[in-house]
Amino acid sequence: MENKGKLLIVDDETAFLKILSIMFSKFYDVRTAESGEEALKILKDGFKAEVILSDQRMPGMSGAEFLEKSMSIVPDATRVILTGYTTPKDIIPAINQAHAYMYLIKPADELALVQSIKIAFDNYNKNKKVKKQAAELKKTVEQLKEKNEELQRSISENTELLNQTIQAISGIASYAERFYFTNHTKFVAITSKLFAEELGLSKDRINNIVLASLLHSSVLNGMPINYILTDPHDLTDDKKMEYLKYFRTSLDTILKVKKLKKYADIIANIWEHHDGSGFPAMLSGTSISYESQIIALVNFYHNNVYRMQLHEVPHFFEIGYVLQGPDRTKKRHEEAIKSLYRHATWFDYDLFHHFQDIIRKKTIPTLVPEQGELRIVNIDVYVAGLIQPKVKSSEETNEEAEEPIEAIETSQGQKMREMNVFVSQLEPGMMMGQTLFTKNGMLVVKNETILDEATIKNIKQLESTEMIPSKVTILVPL
Fold it and tell me: How many Å apart are CA 27 and CA 161, to the nearest integer?
């Protein structure tokens, strides 16, 4: 029997609490409490809540106080707070005190609650998975500390070198990581290690592959975003030369630590191709090490499946997030396999076909497409939207209020055109020209919905708390 997620609901309104319990019991293992004190007792008695939904205004202990105290009992739980406040200056202190992942404004409709709780569980499961991967990576690094014969000459030097390596990952590569749906450095390190073990390479060579993998993302340090999101073989010749300048500068940074030279040599050749068509030295055949080719294969796969695409960049910086559902992940996985076949001559024949067999047989779990919804959040946009909303001048308002776009045909065959309007301009009877989500990924209204007063009121309320953009797209007749 499948284990249900554990949900704790806290609200002093008995009737509302009972409704929520009935609604969610089908999907989750639910416990309820009518006060913060009662909820803390439930947690102390051993209920390991994964998601906690709490009302803010309750007699005695407030929701924020309860959620704050619950941190000492179930620190990893995802917390959601229900509040009657509607302005950021009132909401943000409660969120900060409660360590809340998201908030819902009362009264919240059934759909919003169901979707929000699902998102909260997705967040909990994603964090749990990341911690597991981090533990696996930590274990790998510890094994390297013990087993790498060359580095064992001096225990103090080993510790310093490995610390520098980890710092390079968390510091140098951190900017590039924000453009991936899953952690790129960890994925390449773990998958390359497992692949090398499948190939039966020696422990020393596997150690070298892992350490080079941990450092490889640092070559992206300081690069413009279009280079982070584009592999050099897809660039024009002049752009390749510019890319090479950044590439060499980053390698020089690594080479400042003498003990890292052999790892830098591996990284330097990850864009070289077995057929001699690669970058930057056009090496071929056995001139390219197995270590470089292994990292190159894994890097190629992850970039094609889990890296943000260039056309998503405007959405990331303007709206603040990019989503990738399981269907799209599967499609990108399939396209990556096809792309690998098209570029088979880039890699050693035996190495390439072994990698394809591993993907087909699913013997390495990281090469199986992610099943959940993935998201990349631009926290700078999200926080700026909550704390410092942009104020437009009257000239900007008049100029931007209506931006007609090309004609389209609706699912009912109507000839329409898109128009961007401010939320304040919405009126009953208008037709939505987009599926609208909040910044937390919660569905607000579907495309081609005819707006009524209740829906417009909900949209305006969300816009007033900076949870959706100030402008939306509608459809108007030609």
Answer: 48
Note down pLDDT in tens along the chain; length 478 residues: 457 899 999 999 898 899 889 889 988 999 999 999 999 999 999 999 999 999 888 888 988 899 999 999 999 899 998 887 656 666 777 777 778 888 888 777 778 788 888 988 988 888 888 888 878 877 876 776 666 555 445 444 555 555 455 444 434 445 678 889 998 988 999 999 999 999 999 999 998 998 888 888 878 877 888 888 989 888 888 888 888 888 888 888 777 777 788 888 999 999 999 999 998 889 999 999 999 999 999 999 999 999 999 888 877 777 777 889 999 999 999 999 999 999 999 999 999 999 999 999 999 999 999 988 898 877 655 444 443 333 344 444 344 444 444 678 888 777 888 888 888 888 888 888 888 888 766 778 888 888 888 888 888 888 887 788 888 888 877 6
HSE, CB side, 13 Å, CA atoms: give it for residue 437. Answer: 13
Kindly report the backbone phi and psi dihedral angles of residue 372, in degrees, each rounded to the nearest multiple of 5, phi listed first: -90, 175
Q: Which two three-digit tokens encode residue 354?
A: 């072994």
What is the CATH code of the structural domain delimited by 5-121? Answer: 3.40.50.2300
The amino acid present at 478, given as its one-letter code, is L
Q: CATH 3.40.50.2300 residue ranges in the chain?
A: 5-121
Choosing among 3.40.50.2000, 1.25.40.10, 3.30.360.10, 1.10.3210.10, the CATH entry for 148-314+339-371 is: 1.10.3210.10
Stated as kind and residue range, the H or E segment containing 41 is helix 36-44
| DSSP H or E run through 395 | helix 394-400
Q: Where in the chain is the domain with CATH 1.10.3210.10?
A: 148-314+339-371
List of E strands, 240-366: 321-324
CA distance 227 to 259: 28
CA 76: distance to chain centroid? 18
Q: What is the pTM of this model?
A: 0.50
| Nearest-angstrom CA–CA distance, 215 and 226 | 21
Residue 79: how many CA atoms within 13 Å on its side-chain side?
Answer: 25
What spatial distance separates the first Cα and last Cα of the chain, rounded to whole Å? 55
Rounded Cα–Cα distance for residues 204 and 154 (Å): 17
| Cα–Cα distance measured from residue 220 to residue 174, given in angstroms and rounded to the nearest whole number | 10
DSSP at 418 = E
